[in-house]
TrEMBL record:
Function: Peptidoglycan polymerase that is essential for cell division.
Main location: membrane
Entry superkingdom: Bacteria
EC number(s) on file: 2.4.99.28
Family listed: Belongs to the SEDS family. FtsW subfamily.
Organism: Inhella proteolytica
Annotated protein name in UniProt: Probable peptidoglycan glycosyltransferase FtsW
Enzyme category, top tier: transferase
Biological processes, Gene Ontology terms: cell wall organization; FtsZ-dependent cytokinesis; peptidoglycan biosynthetic process; regulation of cell shape
Record gene name: ftsW
Length: 414
């Protein structure tokens, strides 16, 4: 029977435009009576992010439940950090949903203003009476419902600005002064303000994002190598001229030395003890001993150590695999956008991949003793309202990139 001819007589009006699936049977294309459905975004990416947020919520509660026993936190209820973290996730999800409605062309126009705004906030946070200081560092602006950290906005802004900058300078990639120097000047200004807080960890992440976007944008290889050498030299000089940072390096190299075990390497040694107690399967949820006032900042910078102690090697490996997949997927979305001739969107997504993967790599390395101790949280997991907010906003824009990619591939307009 001539199926195609029969369909030509019986097909309903508008069937071509309605998205009917076209299966093949015996070499002949058959129209199905059910329209095909496809998600407008990467649903698996959303679920991985949700699972990381859920794990973070549980582990923040577990790591902070005993803090009220400490006189420093005596006024807090056992659920204080849990409720604040849950509030931050709620606000971040609402902002993320709103952000997914904004086209990428709007973000491209806003990119320079985002960097300018982050620079102004980094200046404001250093003003006594406006910025909030904790443990000798002035990094937060009190906003009532949460303490906002301008360095988190700066990470988002530099990913946006770097992508926008490379699109505007695409024809000048071979000229160092015209293509690279203005970006380095912006990065230098951000670095000065961040080191004044001080927050060297955030500066390292921002530098990685900026340099990564320059490299992926096609900057001349020799220029890229020169920029990289300058940055490495700057970090070496900062460590050389800072006794505090030198001591951290020495403590990292020999954490069990009596000189450092009770001082600069105190967090690292107790983090390693936590991992050792966890073994393969962990001590069970809530079974951590190190969180009982032995391991400082257990709910923020060293949350992975509590995960290792309570959920064991299996839990830590699952977290590492989740971040590896998340980073890889975000970078793939960026590559897909560039293949569709959407360079700004693609470079931005890849910048976010560098941000999430790089910061997770540093935090995991610090917890495991593979890297010197730095004050960096684990994205999507650690306690910190502004970090959760900017992480979800950044990933929501990546979802918008993916949504526009799919629209273009279906023949629509981004």
């Amino acid at each position: 029977m001539n199926w195609s001819g029969l369909w030509g007589k019986l097909k309903p009006a508008g069937a071509e435009a309605s998205g009917f699936a076209l299966p093949v049977r015996d070499g002949i294309q058959i129209r199905d009576s059910q329209p095909s459905r496809a998600h407008g975004f990467d649903l698996l990416l959303v679920w991985v992010v949700v699972c990381l947020l859920a794990l973070g919520l549980v582990m923040v509660y577990s790591a902070s439940i005993a803090l009220p026993d400490n006189p420093k936190f005596a006024r807090y209820a056992p659920t204080h950090f849990l409720s604040r973290h849950l509030l931050a996730i709620g606000i971040a999800m609402a902002c993320g949903l709103a952000v997914t409605q904004i086209p990428l062309r709007v973000w491209e126009r806003l990119a320079p203003w985002l960097v300018l705004g982050s620079i102004l906030l980094l200046v404001v946070v250093l003003i006594p009476g406006l910025g909030k200081g904790v443990n000798g560092a002035r990094r937060w602006l009190p906003l009532g419902v949460m303490n906002f950290q301008p360095s988190e906005l700066a990470k988002f802004a530099i990913a946006m600005y770097g992508a926008s900058y490379m699109v505007r300078k695409m024809d000048l990639r071979e000229n160092f002064w015209q293509a690279v120097w203005p970006m380095l000047a912006t990065l230098g200004l951000l670095g000065i303000l961040l080191l004044a807080e001080p927050d060297m960890g955030a500066f390292m992440v921002i530098a990685a994002i900026a340099i990564g976007v320059l490299f992926l944008g096609g900057v001349n290889g020799r220029m890229f190598s020169l920029v990289l050498l300058v940055l490495i030299g700057a970090f070496v000089l900062m460590i050389s001229f800072s006794e505090f940072r030198r001591e951290r390096i020495f403590a990292y190299l020999n954490p069990w030395d009596e000189k450092y075990a009770a001082g600069k390497a105190y967090q690292l040694t107790h983090s390693l003890i936590a991992f050792g107690r966890g073994e393969w399967w962990g001590q069970g949820l809530g079974g951590s001993v190190e969180k009982l006032h032995y391991l400082p900042e257990a709910h923020t910078d060293f949350l992975l150590a509590v995960i290792g102690e309570e959920l064991g090697l299996i839990g830590v490996v699952l977290v590492i695999c989740a971040f590896f997949w998340l980073t890889r997927r975000v970078v793939q979305i960026g590559r897909q956008a560039i293949a569709l001739d959407r360079v700004f969107a693609g470079l931005y997504a890849q910048g976010v991949g560098i941000w999430m993967g790089g910061q997770a790599f540093i935090n995991i390395g610090v917890n495991l003793g593979a890297l010197p101790t730095k004050g960096l949280t684990l994205p999507l997991l650690s306690f910190g309202g502004s970090a959760i907010l900017m992480n979800l906003i950044a990933l929501a824009v990546v979802l918008r990139v993916d949504l526009e990619n799919r629209q273009l591939m279906r023949g629509g307009r981004a």
